[in-house]
Amino acid sequence: MRLSHLNGWRAVEAVHRLGGIAAAADDLGVTRAAVTAQVRGLEDRLGRVLFTRTPGGLRPTPDLVAVADRLTEAMTALARAQEALTFEPPGNRVAVSVTQTFAETWLPRHLPDLFPRLGQIDLNLNTTWDVVDLHGADLHFAIRYMGEITGDLAGIPLLPSGVVPVCTPDFAARYGLGEGSMDVSGVPLVHIDVPTTDPDWAGWSRWGQEMGVPVDISQETQPRYALTGSGVRLAHSGVGLVLGGLSEIFASLARGTLIMPFGQRSVFPGAYEHKLIWIDGQRFGPVQRAFRDWVVEKAREDRRVMAEVFGL
To answer: Which residues contact 267 (CB under 8 A, 6 or more apart)?
Structure first.
């Protein structure tokens, strides 16, 4: 069978799999302009549009969605054939630096799917609040809560950020919390000191200002915690109303073990995102690339859930 425009097919598959031109360019090791030109060239060759151009980015058309799985399988097979002939893989070790809350709330939900998917993988997790230098550490990836990716790093956005008041259904009933009013007077508010440089991250004072809700944080009876783990555990404990991070608490909200007593209108978005990053140009073997694709796939699934839960 004669196959033409192979670079165009590679570009289309990468854009669809990774969700955008920039991520595809990083993955393929070419410029964004080159990826755009390859996609348009293939569309011209086929005589049909594969992506709809929107202000929010490229959206795959139904025609592309229908063949996307087969296209990814074909590109994966070609990549594996090339690796076998030209590159000695670095083994099955995958070393990742990850924030404490992400390791506590996101990874446990998805790890049971990782090992059956990737088979023999030696996964090493470096869990810390410190920003680890990927150049000086024996790491393949880092999952960080951050703004723009700069320097010689490449990366892919995973989950958006922000905060919203959450609690157990019993706690909401005990204090009469509901969507009719965002009055928090007399309600125990859990203060979590979050170490972040996100300019839009909100504590209770900022949240109250943005929502137009009086929040008295001077009460000595209000519990305060330094963040050594996720606020999800505090919310589940019923000790108070917790201003929870969106990426940490959405799964509990979807299950109904936690609720947003004031509804979606009480969500305050952040500026940063959780991102998977690596050193630009670093060569990975099949296991490392498969891990990266797995993280992106799971994050894309979670983004859809978050969009429904929070109305993003």
So the answer is: 162, 163, 164, 246, 260, 310, 311, 312
Q: What is the pTM of this model?
A: 0.64
| Helices 62-86, 286-310: inter-axial angle, 10-degree rounding | 160
293 contacts 79 by C-beta, under 8 angstroms: no
pLDDT at residue 169, as a whole number: 93
Reading the block at residue 37, the tokens are: 């030109």
Per-residue pLDDT averaged across 74-83, rounded?
75
Give the number of other CB atoms < 10 A from CB of residue 37. 15
Q: Residue 257 has what pLDDT?
A: 92
Q: Counting Cβ atoms within 10 Å, is residue 102 exposed (0-12), middle (13-18) or buried (19+)? A: buried
Residue 216 pLDDT more than 60?
A: yes
Count of C-beta atoms within a 10 Å radius of residue 256: 8
What are 127's two structure tokens? Answer: 């869990």
Tell me the two tokens of residue 254.
């979807």
- Token pair of 57 as six digits: 């980015």
Please check the confidence at residue 84 and state whether its pLDDT lies above 70.
Answer: no
Choice among 10-14, 41-45, 146-150, 226-230 with the minimum mean pLDDT? 226-230
Q: Would you report the helix, strand and coil content of the chain in percent, each value rounded to 5?
A: 45, 20, 35
pLDDT higher for 145 or 168? 168
Q: Which residues contact 158 (CB under 8 A, 6 or more apart)?
A: 143, 273, 274, 275, 276, 295, 296, 299
Q: Which two tokens stand for residue 125?
A: 């997790």
Q: How far apart are the C-alpha atoms of 95 and 123, rounded to whole Å?
A: 6
What φ, ψ does residue 230 adopt, rounded to 5°?
Answer: -80, 145
